[in-house]
Amino acid sequence: MKKSESPFGEPVVLPLEDVIDLHAFQPKDIPSVVEEYLEQCIQAGLSEVRIIHGRGVGVQRNIVRSLLEKHP
Asked: Helix, strand or coil for residue 19?
């Protein structure tokens, strides 16, 4: 993940790793965060990543699965 929004509205540069934890993100932001993360991983040559979406009622899980179905 390269950028996310800080509480101050300015982008924050994060190191790209093979794991992203979505707990810190609002459900409305997850589609754009995951899309950007996957694009950055592809550019960096990462062929396998782990997306932590949590448990609960499955809102984040469903969003992530839907995005992954459309992604190569």
From this structure: strand
For residue 30, give its domain range: 3-70
15: left (phi over 0), alpha (psi -120 to 50) or beta: beta
Helices (H), the chain: 30-44, 59-70
**pTM of the full structure:** 0.74
Q: What is the pLDDT of residue 50?
A: 95
**Can you list the residues of the chain whose pLDDT is less than 70?**
1-8, 72
Which residues, 6+ apart, have CB-to-CB distance to 20 below 8 Å?
A: 1, 33, 34, 37, 49, 50, 51, 52
Give the count of domains, the chain. 1
